[in-house]
């Protein structure tokens, strides 16, 4: 059973349990949305019924932050550790390298996702990647979505900031991949 924090259902799986679930999802070519639920997102969802419903329909909702872990524990749920977007990205990269997965990095200012991907690929050679920035217009969006679809990523990291990335991933579930909301992770990875 998921932990219920202000009506948002958060998984209690640890980092390594979440990683296993994600590997399984990639291996089985499942289309899933991963929400990394930080306190701001949970608070925001309390005021936005559509966002709340969307998060509660996501296949994986991780406790992103010590505050969320604390709240869950306080409410009596056995949530033991936080599982953040950047932690997931960093843990998935070596797996992706070993399994020769394909990763699409979407988000951040122009050049940042490319730099993040390049650095990651130097550190963990073996995965294929493509990247695009997160400031595309409505007119540019269809060709971006086509690019992602044609690339057929095993993993789609979406760093458009919350809650934009959650809405975006939800409306593009037909990309049939494992999409993970990663916030500002590319900025950190690009260094
Ligand atoms: N961002 C983007 N497109 C937008 C708005 C934001 O790609 O239209 C990116 C921004 O450049 C940054 C990330 O989304 O890399 C948001 O990072 P932040 O740490 O503010 O978000 P959080 O991790 O809190 O969701």
From TrEMBL:
Signal peptide: none annotated. Its EC number is 2.4.1.187. GO terms for molecular function: N-acetylglucosaminyldiphosphoundecaprenol N-acetyl-beta-D-mannosaminyltransferase activity. It comes from the Bacteria. Keywords: Cell wall biogenesis/degradation, Glycosyltransferase, Teichoic acid biosynthesis, Transferase. Pathway: Cell wall biogenesis; teichoic acid biosynthesis. GO terms for biological process: cell wall organization; teichoic acid biosynthetic process. It catalyses: UDP-N-acetyl-alpha-D-mannosamine + N-acetyl-alpha-D-glucosaminyl-di-trans,octa-cis-undecaprenyl diphosphate = N-acetyl-beta-D-mannosaminyl-(1->4)-N-acetyl-alpha-D-glucosaminyl di-trans,octa-cis-undecaprenyl diphosphate + UDP + H(+). Catalyzes the conversion of GlcNAc-PP-undecaprenol into ManNAc-GlcNAc-PP-undecaprenol, the first committed lipid intermediate in the de novo synthesis of teichoic acid. Belongs to the glycosyltransferase 26 family. TagA/TarA subfamily. This is N-acetylglucosaminyldiphosphoundecaprenol N-acetyl-beta-D-mannosaminyltransferase.
């Amino acid at each position: 059973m998921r932990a219920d924090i202000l009506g948002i259902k958060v998984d209690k799986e640890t980092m390594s349990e979440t990683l296993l679930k994600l590997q399984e999802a990639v291996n089985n070519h499942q289309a899933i949305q991963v929400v990394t639920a930080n306190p701001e997102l949970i608070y925001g969802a309390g005021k936005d019924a559509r966002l709340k419903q969307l998060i509660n329909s996501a296949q994986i909702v991780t406790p992103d932050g010590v505050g969320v872990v604390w709240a869950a524990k306080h409410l009596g749920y056995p949530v033991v550790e936080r599982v953040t977007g950047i932690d997931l990205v960093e843990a998935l990269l070596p797996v992706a390298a070993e399994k020769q997965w394909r990763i699409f990095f979407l988000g951040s200012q122009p050049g940042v996702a490319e730099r993040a991907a390049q650095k990651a690929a130097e550190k963990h050679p073996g995965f294929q990647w493509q990247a695009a920035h997160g400031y595309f217009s409505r007119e540019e969006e269809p060709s971006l979505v086509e690019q992602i679809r044609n690339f057929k990523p095993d993993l789609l990291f979406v760093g458009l900031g919350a809650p934009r990335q959650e809405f975006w991933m939800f409306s593009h579930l037909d990309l049939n991949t494992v999409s993970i909301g990663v916030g500002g992770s590319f900025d950190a990875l690009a260094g």
